[in-house]
């Protein structure tokens, strides 16, 4: 029994010193994310905001100004432009995921000049 324990300890020490065993990344804590969003290109008002995240995805409270607690970053938005809360005329997706807890999003269902359709933010 002692020999097996000693060999196991020696193997672990060797692997750690050789950099083979990596330490686990600490888990991101859940936070409250918020921001404001606008639908461009005459598509109507913001009628819904879904937060898509590493953890805690779900409906945000509010529309043009929104918030959602219990979100594990990174996160992005899915926005309903025009129509009604239960039937969006246009669904516009965030073009990137961010770690910031606050962001201003501008959504373009048909794409801003020379870019793809999506919701854009300068936040990172």
Mind describing the biggest β-sheet? 7 strands, mixed
Q: Calculate Rg over CA atoms.
A: 22 Å
What is the count of DSSP helices, taking H or I runs of 4+ residues?
Answer: 1
Which structural class matches the secondary elements? mainly beta
Low-confidence stretches: 1-16, 18-23
Distance between the termini: 53 Å
Approximately how much beta-strand content do the residues carry? over 45%
- Based on Cα principal axes, name the global outline: globular
User: Which bin fits the share of residues in helices?
Assistant: 10-25%
Mean pLDDT: 86
Strand element count: 7
Order of helices and strands: HEEEEEEE
Quick gist of this model?
This protein is mainly beta and 124 residues long.
Can you characterise this structure?
The chain has 124 residues and is mainly β. The chain is 13% helix and 47% strand. It has one helix spanning 2-17, and strands spanning 31-39, 46-55, 58-59, 65-84, 87-93, 102-108, 118-120. Strands 1, 2, 3, 4, 5, 6 and 7 form a seven-stranded mixed beta sheet that branches. Strand 2 (46-55) and strand 3 (58-59) form a beta hairpin. The longest helix has 16 residues, at 2-17. The radius of gyration is 22 Å and the shape is globular.
